[in-house]
């Protein structure tokens, strides 16, 4: 009985030591600076600022432990290389290990999800800035595209602009399906 107890204790110590020395033990679970989007300085954003207040709050964090649970690469912002970062994909319920959903248009606004990520627009709201113009239309006439005229799917004030000076603001051009540039 004494030998069995010693072996059991030795086994328990070995299990604890192996857990402490495992790669999982090196994943920072807490301690991310909510004001620093890359608090652990691994060149991988530690979350997604969903409410766009400039701070990654506890609810918005995407820690290395969560990367482990989701089987994503903590050293790669975009595990599936689809164009949208892992934390953003997890936040919106997409699969960060499969790039197929990066190319889907989840809100039918003619803007693929990876471009929604690029603009920081909502992939489930066809008019993120609520200005009456679909995100995809604003993207098409943005400066991201050649011959764009500065529209931005996250800036609601651009509906009043008239970049081509024809007397019709962008909202009217959108409604009348004319070129605002």
What fraction of residues sit in β-strands? under 5%
What gyration radius follows from the Cα positions, in whole Å?
Answer: 23 Å
- Choose one word for the global shape: rod-shaped
- Count of helical segments? 6
Query: How would you describe the oligomerization state of the chains in this entry?
Result: single chain
Q: What is the average of the pLDDT values? A: 80
Which structural class fits the helix and strand makeup? mainly alpha
Order of helices and strands: HHHHHH
What does this structure look like?
The structure is a single chain. The chain is mainly alpha-helical and 181 residues long. The protein has a domain at 111-181. It is 28% helix and 0% strand. The chain is built from six helices and no strands. The chain starts with a helix and ends in a 6-residue tail after the last helix. Residues 23-35 have low confidence and may be disordered.
Helix-strand layout with pairing:
Layout: H1 2-21, H2 64-69, H3 86-91, H4 113-119, H5 135-140, H6 170-175
């Amino acid at each position: 009985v004494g030998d069995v107890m010693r072996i059991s204790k030795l086994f328990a110590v070995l299990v604890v030591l192996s857990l402490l020395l495992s790669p999982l033990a090196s994943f920072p679970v807490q301690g991310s600076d909510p004001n620093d989007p890359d608090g652990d300085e691994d060149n991988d954003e530690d979350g997604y600022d969903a409410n766009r207040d400039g701070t990654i709050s506890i609810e918005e964090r995407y820690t290395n432990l969560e990367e482990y649970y989701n089987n994503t690469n903590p050293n790669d912002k975009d595990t599936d290389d689809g164009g949208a970062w892992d934390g953003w994909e997890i936040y919106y319920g997409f699969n960060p290990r499969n790039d197929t959903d990066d190319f889907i248009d989840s809100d039918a606004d003619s803007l693929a999800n990876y471009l929604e990520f690029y603009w920081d627009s909502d992939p489930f709201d066809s008019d993120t800035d609520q200005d009456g113009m679909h995100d995809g239309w604003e993207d098409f006439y943005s400066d991201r595209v050649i011959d764009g005229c500065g529209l931005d799917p996250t800036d609601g004030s651009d509906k009043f602009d008239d970049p081509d000076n024809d007397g019709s603001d962008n909202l009217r051009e959108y409604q009348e399906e004319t070129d605002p540039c």
